[in-house]
Amino acid sequence: MTPATTSPESSSTPDNGAASSTAPRPSPTGSGRPRRLVVVGGVAGGMSCAARARRLSEDAEIIVLDRGRHVSFANCGLPYYVGGEIENQDDLLVQTPERLRAWLNLDVRTGHDVTGIDPEAQEVIVRTAAGEQRLGYDALVLAPGAKAARPPVEGLDSPRVSTLRTVEDAARLREQADAGVESALVLGAGFIGIEAAEVLAKRGIATTVVEFAEHVLPPLDREHAYPITQELRGLGIDVRTGTAAKSITHGTDADEVLLSDGTSVRADMIVLATGVRPDTDAFAASGLELERGAIVVDEHGRTNLPHVYAVGDATVSTDPVTGARRPVPLAGPANRAGRLVADFIMDPEHARPIPAPLGTAVVRVGEMTAAMTGANRDSLDAAGIEYTTIHLHPNQHAGYFPGASQLHLSVSFAPDGRLLGAQCVGRDGVDKRIDVLATAIRAGLGVADLIDLDLAYAPPFGQAKDPVNLAGMLGANVLNGTVDVWDVRDLEQVRQTHLLLDVRTRAEVAGGMVPGALNIPHTELRARIEEVRQAAAGRPVGVICQVGVRANIAHRILVGNGLASSVQTGGMITLRAWLGDDADSYLVRA
Amino acid sequence: MTPATTSPESSSTPDNGAASSTAPRPSPTGSGRPRRLVVVGGVAGGMSCAARARRLSEDAEIIVLDRGRHVSFANCGLPYYVGGEIENQDDLLVQTPERLRAWLNLDVRTGHDVTGIDPEAQEVIVRTAAGEQRLGYDALVLAPGAKAARPPVEGLDSPRVSTLRTVEDAARLREQADAGVESALVLGAGFIGIEAAEVLAKRGIATTVVEFAEHVLPPLDREHAYPITQELRGLGIDVRTGTAAKSITHGTDADEVLLSDGTSVRADMIVLATGVRPDTDAFAASGLELERGAIVVDEHGRTNLPHVYAVGDATVSTDPVTGARRPVPLAGPANRAGRLVADFIMDPEHARPIPAPLGTAVVRVGEMTAAMTGANRDSLDAAGIEYTTIHLHPNQHAGYFPGASQLHLSVSFAPDGRLLGAQCVGRDGVDKRIDVLATAIRAGLGVADLIDLDLAYAPPFGQAKDPVNLAGMLGANVLNGTVDVWDVRDLEQVRQTHLLLDVRTRAEVAGGMVPGALNIPHTELRARIEEVRQAAAGRPVGVICQVGVRANIAHRILVGNGLASSVQTGGMITLRAWLGDDADSYLVRA
């Protein structure tokens, strides 16, 4: 959504809509349907709601108000337009008011900024270029979306600073890129920030991305973020994490941005992508219940105000895994909720509740993909939920088929097996595995149920034991005690209490091993078991290999010989990713 | 598996394995573990079982017998080796006996052909180059797999006829292709036949494929098979369906194959790919219960013989959707069942039952992919199950993002919403949607639950309303009566009883319309509703558009105006695919 348009000739002109002012207002939860539905916000959730409402009611008056110049535009496509991968601006306009009128008889009014609600009168207050109006409603759906958060950075009002929320924003950034700017700074390495940094770097602009969190894409677990950091560096992007912009000094040639770590960056253009917040300022005075700025709704999108509903980025929902309350500013949940709210308004008898979004998300970064669903480890820790996370690195398709590449997959589950979350990074097949796992989580499956999924297999597409099946097998092993695992996060603790046993080959170990570990290749372990027993001297053994497969075999040999053992899940690949840039200095060369 | 090796010096040499002949045999279902596990068949299910058994028991003796020269080879990769996409034969050998010994202490014996079971003595009879032996077992797992079915075709023993089941088969076919043969005939257009035809055609060989069923890939519904037929033709392949080889005349230069339709094909090489049947002849005399040649097993892989288990292509299972009994010769279920049987043998307390396979399958054909899960319409019809099938043609990712291409997706569900099956054909993103739907079916979700799946969305990967979500929305509409659908299969019946209304634009209709349909573009429908009422003259309206979206909108307009209506699901794209080559002669040009 664009910023509110201000009109110097603001005046109050009563709306002449007969429906709202004279007709008795049926209860939207009763048998009657609203005669006039007003939707505030014509993108994603709002437009889905309006379109669905028309398909359920041929005779309702349906009015969509949007303060911007465009409705139903491709929000998620904006970075790709900046980069030129999407060539034409028109391609971003999924629908136009004219087409929505012709197809669905919707009354779409752009340049209409809703500045307030009068719930008593059942009217919204609308500001347009022509002045202020009031518009009555029988049912009102608020879909105002989110706007860019503006951190308290001195000089943030520099004309070189842009957000990337609207078609106009994207057009301006593309113009700057076309004009041949030399350097760009992206503030924030979330989804939008990463996408923006990539498209700018690919256009030959020296690009820096700054992220306050300790790693890029903060919703990812640390070990999954590192391959993405490396991919960004491979694109020539200067990645700076654990720091933030402190002040921006506007200069004639470029801006000078001072960071909290004391360094500074010169930039010809600055993209502000430090997150979003619900765009609900207009509704605060109306008595609408908000929770940290987000609209509180029930399972049918009802707010605390009668006949007023809300959907999308501006609403708060409960995390189905952790119980945390937060808005989920994602297009998918918004679109689906818009439709379900229309169902409830027009046909409550058949309406399904709006499911709490799992926060499934995906992003392309260079040649890689990162995706996630459900809760990450930080949020599980914050919620005090007991869980185990397993890491796997299987190929996305048969290893003998050309183009095989490794997935980095983690799955978290509760002590009773309930799936809690999953993350995946890789070059191909990432989105598929996360979609399968998102489906499994939504269906309430346990980790061992993943064994039984009949996933499509042919060499170009998967493995006879798909990575998701493998996660189920490993998870089942953990649940029934066939394998005990420990996490790379506990490395230092395990080093102090366990004999670390690295079962990789000598050649592999030569490239770097955890200090103090004993190396016995797993193929020699049966013959050298007494050596391990002596070295362990009563301590349990912590087994490490490259990805976890050989460590599992070694673990079973150790247990079969009466030794206490557990396996570092994910092996050296996970361990190295978790150590990140510190890996080479931490590991010793044998 | 290779055909049985015959040994001229066959003799009976008693096995000297102490474990089987002297030790008391613990019941595998009791608390004791078998001291010797014998596995017959060292590919897929058999090898998965042996490997898992070792990981559960460090001290059991585990012997794998295979009559072939190779174990654990990449069955599904063979066609790609013939085509050269997999370059080296060694890449097909996933494991070797040496490596299996070193890693897992498995005793893998190739060239060991099991010719019978003596269940009383708990021994298998094994024929090797050295003669016949008997080998005792405490637990026996039969994983003999399937062999090529040999239809009653005169001259099928021509040396130009090969199957494509073993590494040796593949090597021979590749040699022939390398030697520059000019023409090839593939008998059977199932998965293997299609893959073989494609790789041969891509090598410049004039290739014909012959299929007895009415369309290629018989498990696909007819309308999904047509795009695959077109893709095969695009590769230069001569596709002949509804016919079969009758006789093969071996000639000096080439073979002459007479087909049942009276035509004939000359071919330098002939690939027999008319399906497989369980390779169980060796076990018939032992009292093993077979059902049409397939081994009958319970949910833990137990056969009717004590201590004898079976897994994989040679076993029969019950279709979880239709209840039909059939073998499912697919690598995924075989591998997973092998593991679960090992669990039951070694650790029955923690063993999960083997799930009945859904038959999820996928195949790459040229630039296209076809995939399916659950029951197709023919099998639902045969089982007398009531169902609705919906067809959709959404893009696999955001339409405005480069590379968008259409999926052809169908989903079948019961009157109570239970998901029964799904099929998908397209250029990209096909396997992902089928995997999600396979997961949903396995989890027992209903079609409307598909609305709630939180699938990963970013423009390169999907849509804010993913095709699977859209299927849920359309399915929910059907279930709650918001939309009534009719199937292209009922076209002639609907033509007789309904007013057909084509709501596409005039330009679209000019390219072909169902004879007798009335054309009113959906954007004009509200204004011309009385025209429809008159033309319908009391008959219900059957609405058609290109993919179904506009027809749904038109349907709601018609219903909103008091007209009975239903929508042809899938629109002209499904209708044309269903008509296939007859489409152009059937449709009229307005």
UniProtKB/TrEMBL annotation, chains A, B:
The keyword Flavoprotein applies. InterPro entries: FAD-bd_OxRdtase, FAD/NAD-bd_sf, FAD/NAD-binding_dom, FAD/NAD-linked_Rdtase_dimer_sf, Pyr_nucl-diS_OxRdtase_dimer, Rhodanese-like_dom, Rhodanese-like_dom_sf. Its cofactor is FAD. Residues 494-562 form the Rhodanese domain. This is NADPH-dependent 2,4-dienoyl-CoA reductase, sulfur reductase. Residues 1-35 are annotated as: Disordered. Belongs to the class-III pyridine nucleotide-disulfide oxidoreductase family. It holds the Pfam family Rhodanese. GO terms for molecular function: oxidoreductase activity. Keywords: FAD, Flavoprotein, Oxidoreductase, Redox-active center. Residues 1-14 have a biased composition (Low complexity).
